[in-house]
Amino acid sequence: MLDRRHFLRTAAIGATAAAMLPSFAGPARAQAFDTLKLFVPANPGGGWDQTARSMEQALKAAGLIRNAQVTNVGGAGGAVGLPQFVNQWKGQGNALMIGGMVMVGALIANKAPVKLSQMVPIARLTGEFEVVVVPASSPHKSLQDLLAAFKADPAKVSWAGGSAGGTDHILAGMIAKAAGQDPRKVAYVAYSGGGPAIAALLGAQVTCGISGWGEFGEQVKAGKLRALAISADKRQPGIDVPTIREQGLDVELFNWRGVFAPPGVKDSERAALIDLVTKMNASPQWAEQLKAKDWTSIFLAGDDYAKFIEQENVRIEGILKDLGLA
Fold first, then answer.
1. Structural domains in the chain, sorted by start
2. What's the chain look like in SS3?
3. What is the pLDDT of residues 244-259, one digit of tens each?
4. pTM above 0.70, yes or no
């Protein structure tokens, strides 16, 4: 679980770009990151792409790199792009792939021949909590109201979200299981994006919806949707919505994003990439990106991140088996 023990919040604002440059000096390292290559296994505009573009801006502004190249290869939650990163980017010590929780689930659900374990974990960067919402006209005023209806007749409670097996679907399954119900009975309706899901909710075509706060937040503030619960570890500043856990269910989930190096990189190159991303994470330029995107920093690097990835694969595979998707 992504609980407080795993979160390594940004502890302090880093030095200015001028202060960072001397510690970044050294012919080998400076040359390696003259250009940083960022591989995004998703189409432009999504969360992974936004992460790559934000990294590019922060790293340049902090003086940690001179140039960046972003390559997008979208499809199937990363399952299309990952083989290309494995085979064509192998051994490139100045390359990073953006990935996250969605990729873990997609690779398992699609029974992809290429595994995330083939990558070299560098760092977990950000997390976005999920929110459970209902239309403003819904009779369900709390998560317990919704779960009472679900327990009475699971087929009559439809859950809108993103792709089957993705973060939204996983959270619905976790909630059902924590409530003592069979996750396979979740009547999940998968939509291609937040827009169609919002339209279905506003049209009362579904009972409830699950997505990141960024997708539903504006509709909640406008009074068109009612937020019943958030999947964060604690209440969030400026958001008057209780957590799932404080409503009696031991459920917490962050849709995390992180970076990986391709297979075949040298130990020294791995160390340099970890150092680069760690310095970015401590910089005021990255703090500005986090604030602008309303992202939560859950930084975890190197061996700790590699251990987290191993645990996450096991955890998500178990959830997808509960849902009948693995």
1. 17-127+256-322 (3.40.190.150), 128-247 (3.40.190.10)
2. CCCCCCCCCCCCCCCCHHHHHHHHCCHHHHHHCCEEEEEECCCCCCHHHHHHHHHHHHHHHCCCCCEEEEEECCCHHHCCHHHHHHHHCCCCCCEEEEEEHHHHHHHHHCCCCCCHHHCEEEEEEEEEEEEEEEECCCCCCCHHHHHHHHHHCHHHCEEEECCCCCHHHHHHHHHHHHCCCCHHHCEEEECCCHHHHHHHHHCCCCCEEEEEHHHHHHHHHCCCEEEEEECCCCCCCCCCCCECHHHCCCCCCEEEEEEEECCCCCHHHHHHHHHHHHHHHCCHHHHHHHHHHCCEEEEEEHHHHHHHHHHHHHHHHHHHHHCCCC
3. 999 999 999 988 999 9
4. yes
